[in-house]
Amino acid sequence: MLIDTHSHLNFNAYKDDADEVIRRSLSNNIWMINVGSQYKTSKRAVDIAERYQEGVYASVGLHPIHLAEGIFKAKLDKEEISFQTKNEDFGHDSYKNLAQSKKVVAIGEIGLDYYYRPKTKIKLAEFKKRQREVFLAQFNLAKELNLPIIFHCRMAHQELIEILENNTGAKGVVHCFTGDWGQAQKYLDMGFYIGFNGIIFKFSQSENSRGPAGRGIILDLDEVIKKVPLDKILIETDCPYLTPPPMEGRNEPAYVKYVVEKIAKIKGLDYEKLGEITSKNARELFRI
After folding, report:
1. Structural domain boundaries of the chain?
2. How many Å from the N-terminal Cα to the C-terminal Cα in the chain?
3. pLDDT tens, 2-36?
4. Residue 69, class by beta-carbon neighbours within 10 Å (0-12 exposed, 13-18 middle, 19+ buried)?
5. Residue 87 has pLDDT above 80, yes or no
6. 174-177 — which CB contacts under 8 Å span 24+ positions?
7. What is the reported pLDDT for 44?
8. Helix, strand or coil for residue 233?
9. Are 172 and 198 in contact (CB under 8 A)?
């Protein structure tokens, strides 16, 4: 069995066939956690999970990009897509109520995202301050409910590490890791897991790729994967995004097997063994 610890079948990309995709995944013995990014997708994740006796779980949280209004971009396989987001305030009680469902296994995805940032110093300071405040409010909710956290971090690892070093007592996973080994080691030292998905095909030794947004950062995730202890690795798809080769188009939980294959090759392990280890890790962190 494999467990996709970060999927978004609660997103509009699956509005017509989410249950079909889920059944296909479950028939291949692949379980999943559908992760919320704002209240409506968090509620949808819970509603979907409650339709299934086992194998489908939910996480609830407010993603940092939903703290500002604007047009944001994401990649669906090779195609860049844009979507409109509207400002949402974090409602502690609303998210706490959602998290009462027995199918909710985490708070997330929450964190920092400095990719689309204001250009003036004053606005940038306000932008970062708001993200930190909302992140800490959800961090404290996770501690209150004794739930692990699914961390989102883009172009902000140093800031997130500093916050976590000063706010202890949480468990969780750094989802879609795109940092260097030094940053990964700091997360590991704090007891967190590292989540890998289809982005590892883009930022590897063979590709000699530059970092997120092409901002001149050389990123080698093969090195990170080699060094991360087996008992701290989680696998994910982040579907509908980051479709791994050889597949194209919309991603889905069934494709997590390609992530396992690549990690197993990098680690010099048997596919089945790595699948067993990562499933054990997911079960322990999310208590499923």
Report:
1. 2-286
2. 13
3. 999 999 999 999 999 999 999 999 999 999 999 99
4. exposed
5. no
6. 175/5, 175/6, 175/35, 175/108, 175/109, 175/150, 175/151, 175/236, 175/238, 176/6, 176/152, 176/236, 176/238, 176/242, 177/221, 177/224
7. 98
8. strand
9. no
How far is C-alpha 35 from the chain's CA centre? 8
Pairing of strands 70-76, 79-85: antiparallel
- Cis status, amide bond into 240, omega within 30 of 0: yes
What is the average per-residue pLDDT within 103-126?
93
3-state SS class at 61:
coil
Residue 204's pLDDT is what?
A: 72
Can you give the pLDDT at residue 118?
Answer: 83
Q: What is the mean pLDDT of residues 62-87?
A: 65
Contact yes or no for 103/50 (Cβ under 8 A): yes
For residues 98 and 146, the answer to whether their CB atoms sit within 8 Å is no
DSSP-derived letter for residue 31 is E
Element (H, E) at 98: helix 92-98
- The mean per-residue pLDDT over the stretch 94-101 comes to 98
Relative orientation angle of helices 181-189 and 157-166, to the nearest 10 degrees: 20
- 110: Cβ contacts below 8 Å, ≥ 6 apart: 61, 62, 63, 64, 134, 135, 138, 139, 149, 150, 151, 152
- CB-CB contact of 107 with 141 (8 Å): yes
Question: Which amino acid appears at position 215 of this protein?
Answer: R
Cβ neighbors of 73 (< 8 A, separation 6 or more) are 80, 81, 82, 83
Query: What's the fold here for domain 2-286?
Result: TIM Barrel (3.20.20)
Model confidence at 77: pLDDT above 90: no
